[in-house]
Amino acid sequence: MRLKNYNDPIYGFISIPTPFIYTLIQKPVFQRLRRIQQMGLSHYVFSGATHHRFAHALGAMHLMHKALTVLEDKGIAISPEEKEAAMISILLHDIGHGPFSHALEGILIENVSHETLSLALMKALNQKHNGKLSMAIDMFTNTYKRPFFNQLISSQLDMDRLDYLKRDSFYSGVTEGNISTDRIIAMLMVHDDQLVVEEKGIYSIEKFLLARRLMYWSVYLHKTSYVAEEVLKRIILRARELLNQGTAIDASADLLYFISASHSSVNQIDMDHYTAIDDVDILSMVKAGVKHSDPVYASLCNMVLTRRLPKIKVNNEPFSSDFIEKKKNRAKTKFDISLENISYYVFDGVMKNMAYNLEQSPILLIDKKGNTKELLAGSDQSNLKMLTKAVMKYYCCYPK
Amino acid sequence: MRLKNYNDPIYGFISIPTPFIYTLIQKPVFQRLRRIQQMGLSHYVFSGATHHRFAHALGAMHLMHKALTVLEDKGIAISPEEKEAAMISILLHDIGHGPFSHALEGILIENVSHETLSLALMKALNQKHNGKLSMAIDMFTNTYKRPFFNQLISSQLDMDRLDYLKRDSFYSGVTEGNISTDRIIAMLMVHDDQLVVEEKGIYSIEKFLLARRLMYWSVYLHKTSYVAEEVLKRIILRARELLNQGTAIDASADLLYFISASHSSVNQIDMDHYTAIDDVDILSMVKAGVKHSDPVYASLCNMVLTRRLPKIKVNNEPFSSDFIEKKKNRAKTKFDISLENISYYVFDGVMKNMAYNLEQSPILLIDKKGNTKELLAGSDQSNLKMLTKAVMKYYCCYPK
Amino acid sequence: MRLKNYNDPIYGFISIPTPFIYTLIQKPVFQRLRRIQQMGLSHYVFSGATHHRFAHALGAMHLMHKALTVLEDKGIAISPEEKEAAMISILLHDIGHGPFSHALEGILIENVSHETLSLALMKALNQKHNGKLSMAIDMFTNTYKRPFFNQLISSQLDMDRLDYLKRDSFYSGVTEGNISTDRIIAMLMVHDDQLVVEEKGIYSIEKFLLARRLMYWSVYLHKTSYVAEEVLKRIILRARELLNQGTAIDASADLLYFISASHSSVNQIDMDHYTAIDDVDILSMVKAGVKHSDPVYASLCNMVLTRRLPKIKVNNEPFSSDFIEKKKNRAKTKFDISLENISYYVFDGVMKNMAYNLEQSPILLIDKKGNTKELLAGSDQSNLKMLTKAVMKYYCCYPK
Amino acid sequence: MRLKNYNDPIYGFISIPTPFIYTLIQKPVFQRLRRIQQMGLSHYVFSGATHHRFAHALGAMHLMHKALTVLEDKGIAISPEEKEAAMISILLHDIGHGPFSHALEGILIENVSHETLSLALMKALNQKHNGKLSMAIDMFTNTYKRPFFNQLISSQLDMDRLDYLKRDSFYSGVTEGNISTDRIIAMLMVHDDQLVVEEKGIYSIEKFLLARRLMYWSVYLHKTSYVAEEVLKRIILRARELLNQGTAIDASADLLYFISASHSSVNQIDMDHYTAIDDVDILSMVKAGVKHSDPVYASLCNMVLTRRLPKIKVNNEPFSSDFIEKKKNRAKTKFDISLENISYYVFDGVMKNMAYNLEQSPILLIDKKGNTKELLAGSDQSNLKMLTKAVMKYYCCYPK
Question: pTM (2 decimals)?
Answer without folding.
Answer: 0.91
